[in-house]
Write a structure and sequence with these properties.
Order of helices and strands: EHEEHEEEEHEHEHEHEHEHEHHEH
Number of strands: 14
Structural class: alpha/beta
Helix content: 25-40%
Distance between the termini: 44 Å
Number of helices: 11
Bound molecules: phosphoenolpyruvate, manganese (II) ion
CATH class of the largest domain: Alpha Beta
Strand order of the largest sheet: 7-8-9-10-11-12-13-14
CATH superfamily of the largest domain: Aldolase class I
Length: about 350
């Protein structure tokens, strides 16, 4: 940490600050400039006390305390310079292949899910998405089929061979959801529900962590740190749009998160353009952009009849439109050096 002292303080005050820093376990390095003295406090900031208390303790002497180390460790490239890969059944996420996770916003019925699963598989998706427990803004909206929905997802997996991703909403359901899911999704609304993140990590299943609606990237990385810190290395970050003043889209899909997360972290990055824009007509373009920018996977909502969907109708693609998207994505996948 870097501690900047106020101008014209006495040597006695300076020594008191130095003594306190050393007491907290840091070595000190004093740099005396013309007008100011700066102290470098040398030690692991993640395991030593936070020196910001110096501001309150020595208000006459200390002007600022600036941490140097990042607050996250295990998700960072420093801890793991190479890209991480995640095995999901026979697939590897974060490797050469771009994976497409596709399926309805909500599991509604066997017919709806199986028709969608067959179609997305035929078009090239490898993972089936579908919400069984739905986080709805209003308590009067469809809340998901619960365990019945999980059973339908398992059936769709048996029939098509697709792996399954579904959302975990509550710690109480962790074991139940893990019994059926190949990947556990933590939704935007729960992205900083730390007990839920710990419960998801504890299942041992790969975790896809959505970005919260108003979450800074640092907060998102720190939320991901909870998963790795609880001994689950299989984490992927999923950008799904943040809340801004814009009204042409449901959320503002922050594609700059792709290169930023890639630079900061070794974990795979997934883009969800469906929640991201809330508009089916933008999904293909946003997917193309995401692939070009280096996303490892896409999470796309697809429904046999979007107009009659029980949730998120405006953003779901019909089966034909999804097949078309997969074709229009091909040149971008190749240009990005992926398969
Ligand atoms: C979803 O994937 O359907 C969903 C509810 O996602 P989010 O948590 O990003 O809103
Ligand atoms: Mn949805």
């Amino acid at each position: 940490m870097i501690i900047v002292l106020k101008p014209r303080i006495s040597r006695k005050e300076e020594h008191a600050v130095l003594r306190e820093i050393r007491k907290l376990g840091y070595a000190t390095h004093v740099m005396r400039g013309v007008a100011r003295t700066v102290i470098g406090a040398i030690g692991d900031e993640l395991t030593h006390a936070n020196l910001e208390t110096l501001l309150a303790q020595f208000p006459q002497a200390v002007e600022s305390v600036t941490p140097i180390q990042k607050r996250y460790k295990l998700v960072s490239r420093e801890a793991h310079p190479a890209n991480s890969t995640i095995r999901v059944r026979e697939h590897v996420i974060g490797g050469k292949k771009l994976h497409v996770m596709a399926g309805p916003c909500s599991v509604e019925s066997e017919d709806q899910l199986l028709r969608t699963a067959e179609a997305v598989k035929a078009a090239g998706a490898t993972i089936l998405r579908g919400g069984a427990f739905k986080p709805r803004t209003s308590p009067y909206e469809f809340q998901g089929l619960g365990e019945k929905g999980l059973k339908l997802l398992a059936k769709a997996r048996r029939v098509t061979g697709l792996a399954v991703i579904t959302e975990l909403l509550s710690e109480n359901h962790a074991a139940l959801v893990a019994e059926y899911a190949d990947i556990i999704q933590i939704g935007a609304r729960n992205a900083q529900n730390f007990q839920l993140l710990i419960a998801a990590a504890g299942t041992g299943k790969p975790v896809l962590l959505k970005r919260g609606l108003s979450m800074k990237i640092e907060e998102w990385l720190l939320a991901g740190e909870y998963v790795l810190a609880h001994e689950n290395p299989n984490l992927m970050f999923c950008e799904r749009g943040i809340r801004t003043f814009e009204t042409y889209t449901r959320n503002t899909l922050d594609l700059s998160a792709v290169p930023i997360i890639k630079r900061e972290s070794h974990c795979p990055v997934v883009i969800d353009p469906s929640q991201g824009a809330g508009r089916a007509d933008l999904v293909t373009t946003l997917c193309q952009g995401a692939v070009a920018m280096g996303a490892d996977a896409l999470l796309i909502e697809v429904h046999p009849n979007p107009a009659e969907a029980w949730s998120d109708g405006a953003q779901q693609l019909s089966l034909d439109r999804f097949a078309q998207l997969m074709k229009e994505l091909q040149p971008f996948i190749q240009a990005a050096g992926r398969k």
